Amino acid sequence: MKEQEFPTLNDIRHALVKIKNFVHRTPILTSTAINEIAGCEIYFKCENFQKVGAFKARGAANAVLKLKPEQKSKGVATHSSGNHAAALARAAKVAGIPAYIVMPSNAPEIKKKAVKGYGGEIIECEPNLQARETTLEKVVQETGATFIPPYDFMDVIEGQATCALEFLEDQPDLEIIMAPVGGGGLLGGTALLTHYWDEEIIIYGAEPSGADDAYRSLKAGHIIPQTKPNTIADGLLTSVGVLNFELIKKYVKDIFLATDPQIIEAMRMIYERMKIVIEPSCAVPLAALLANKEKFAGKKVGIILSGGNVDLGKLPF
Hints:
This protein has 2 domains: 3-55 and 153-314, Rossmann fold; 57-147, Rossmann fold. The protein has a 6-stranded mixed sheet with strand order 1-2-10-7-8-9, with helices on both faces. Strands 5-4-3-6 form a 4-stranded parallel sheet, with helices on both faces. By secondary structure, it is an alpha/beta fold. The chain has helices spanning 9-18, 32-38, 56-65, 69-74, 83-95, 109-117, 129-143, 154-170, 185-197, 213-220, 242-251, 260-274, 280-290, and strands spanning 28-29, 41-46, 76-79, 99-104, 121-125, 146-147, 176-180, 202-208, 254-258, 300-305.
């Protein structure tokens, strides 16, 4: 994958303009109490306040808006157990086109309700990757819908990169930016935009120790697929994508890990100190920072709070 094949800074700027009626420009919040605990200045970019409750709204909107008219007429399709499913369903609804969403039978009920609420048609399958992919293939053959992947797709990466563009437009003095990594769309897009904006800004990823394929892959220099992930951070269970890994290898300095107890502690800290709702995956960067305070001492650190879709009846504290 050659660098020039990735979106340019102008591409990302144009994407932000294009999707502005589909998404929120989310706020940046700070907490004096958390700063004192962490020993640095943290600026939280609150994508938990985003449409559909997660940054995924950006990539889905951008991908839908870049479809040709004949593609739009047949709709879009994807397989997802979470936020991308809702994001694509909503983007399709706003664009006035059909959305076919393949979801595993064990997907969280809150996520299924969101997809139905946005008018997406859910096709259930067995809870494994092979079933998701074969069911999706059948749906695409039957409907002619365009497959919009959750993260390993250039238009989605371009859309996710708009989050970092907003962040740096509103808080240009950041020295470090952190984002969680699952498939890597957010971290890859963030790293790409930040590389264009200011190469001096350090980019770190954050990952659960129970689903650490991106961490191991970065150390090895090649993708090591995720096997049997086990973490409370349910949004970060997938293997890192091929396109995203290219960006991570080039522009991400390191990936830090956090255990589930550390993730829960950071999640609770944000609830108690900042009075906002986040999902476990969202707490991973703060948890990783607190576990590696010496790397961040005295710095201005931006953390992307990736989403807030959590079942409030099943909080881990």
